[in-house]
Amino acid sequence: MTHSDARFIPGIELSRALYEEAVRPILRETFPGLRHAAARIGGGSEVLGFDTPRSADHEWGPRLELFLTPADRAEHGAHIHRVLRERLPKHVRGWPTHFEESANPLDPVGRMRATDGPVNHRVDVHTVDDWAAERLGLRPADAQPSVTEWLAMPQQRLLETTAGTVFHDDHGTLTALRRTLTWYPDQVWRYLLACQWQRISQEEAFVGRCAESADDLGSALVAGRLVRDLMRLCLLLDRRYAPYGKWLGSAFGRLPAARALTPSLRGALTAPDHPTRECHLCDAYEAVATLHNATGLTPPLDPTRRPYHSRPFLVLHAEHFAQALARTLTHPALRERPLVGGVDQWADSTDLLHRPLAVHAATLAIQ
After folding, report:
1. For 200-222, how does the pLDDT look when each residue is reduced to its tens digit (9 = 90+)?
2. How is the chain split into domains, by residue range?
């Protein structure tokens, strides 16, 4: 059987099978008494529950993260890697455990391949502290993040940390990290909501202004940005981290409000002209404003469309929601902070967001 013949199962199930049927028995026999955690977290569509058969074309398959104490990793980490190379089964549930590395430097990924020799596996050995520092910029992992650290952690990385599954955790440190990062502290959440409304307020009138200037393409482009910001706002309101662009629509589709909102958002994206586009956007503004009022985070605010000052464009005036939320901020580090937001509210460069030290430094500079 080749892996193309294997029945697709969610990657999390495949990782569980790898651990329970192969890795755990080997650890117990070769390293008796070794305390560890085992999980499938981090990068990968399977961690977010969005994997499909298409995912199997690269860096998907029987994968696992093992976590040891610093002392145990220093003593046993390399030995564990070697033992698993020699003793892992060649397949789990019909899928190869061997990954062939691409020789193309422009395509540096691994793909499952059958092998008769040692297994180039995807069982990675970490410490919780090193994993949290590398992916989130947190050190030590068991410390409560500061306001700056919260704002410097991309939501995609927070989601990759708190989604997925922990299969085993002797020390409890990985479970504790995930519990700490489950959601933002209340004051940080309010600040991020204010900043998301602020983003919307800054562009909601441009849909009409571009169209008035005979730039319908620009009007449509701004509408697309506003749709994305509304989707991310809905995720924030529902206390869910937003994934990066590939999975934003999928994550939004799981929200309770998605069924009612999607026609308006899709209508704004596909509208043939400005009046239709504006109507759909205003429907969406009013629906999301109603969701905001239902949270009770601020006194009820007017959720209806109205003219943009003396100009003939209909908007929500989303700045009223941003300002009302800002008035609820009591944390000194947030009360005086400009409404710039967390890192993924002011930056969407993948290469930047994967560099925690640079992101942390930039976040510190925003005062």
Report:
1. 999 999 999 999 999 999 999 99
2. 3-180, 186-336
